Amino acid sequence: MAGAVVLLRGINVGGRNLIRMPELQSAFRDAGYADVRTYIQSGNVLFTTDAVAGPALEADVERVLEERFGTAIMTVVRSRDDLAAVIDAAPPGHGDPDLRSDVLFLKEPAATPDLLAALPELDPDVDRVASGPGVLYFSRVAARAGSSRLTRIIGMPIYKRLTIRNWNTTTRLLALLDGD
C-alpha cells in the first residue's frame, strides 16, 4: 500500500463547509482507506491505499465526502512520490524567509500552461510564479505581500480547479508521509 495525501478545497474556511477532523478521518476509514490521519484544519488527509493516485481516486474520495457530509468538495490527490516531485521541482528560493510561498495544486485535467495563461498581470517586484508537475509555485515578497496580485485569481474560473497550500504545509505533508 502506498501513501497519499488528499487536499480538500474550501473546508473550514470562513465558517463554510465545517468538518471536524475526527469525522473526516472516520469517513476515510469507513471507505476502506488505511493509516488515516489529518494535518491542520484546512483539509489535508494522509492515508495509504492500493489505488493509484489520480482522477479515479479523486472521484472516489469526492463521492465518499459528498455521501458523508452532504456537500460536494473538490479534492486533489497526490501520491507520496508525486508530492516529493513537487517539492524537488520547486524553483530556487521558493520558501525563503523573505517570501510568502505557496503551491497551487491543480486538479486534473487542468494544466499549468492554462493557469499560467489565465493569470492576471503580475507585479515583477512582488510576485514570482513558476510551473511544476501539476502545480504552480507562487511567491510574493513578504514585506509587500499586500501588493500581490495572487488574490485576483480567486475570481477566475480556473480557481475552482485548484487548491492552495503554503510551502511549510506542503513540505510538512511530505515529512508526515515519510513517517516524521
UniProtKB/TrEMBL annotation:
Q: From which domain of life does this come?
A: Bacteria
Q: SUPFAM superfamilies from the entry? A: SP0830-like
Pfam families the UniProt entry points to:
DUF1697 (PF08002)
Signal sequence extent: none
Task: Give the matching InterPro entries.
Answer: DUF1697
Instruction: Please name the PANTHER family in this protein's record.
Output: BLL4334 PROTEIN, DUF1697 DOMAIN-CONTAINING PROTEIN
Entry protein name: DUF1697 domain-containing protein
Q: Taxonomically, what lineage is the organism? A: Bacteria, Bacillati, Actinomycetota, Actinomycetes, Micrococcales
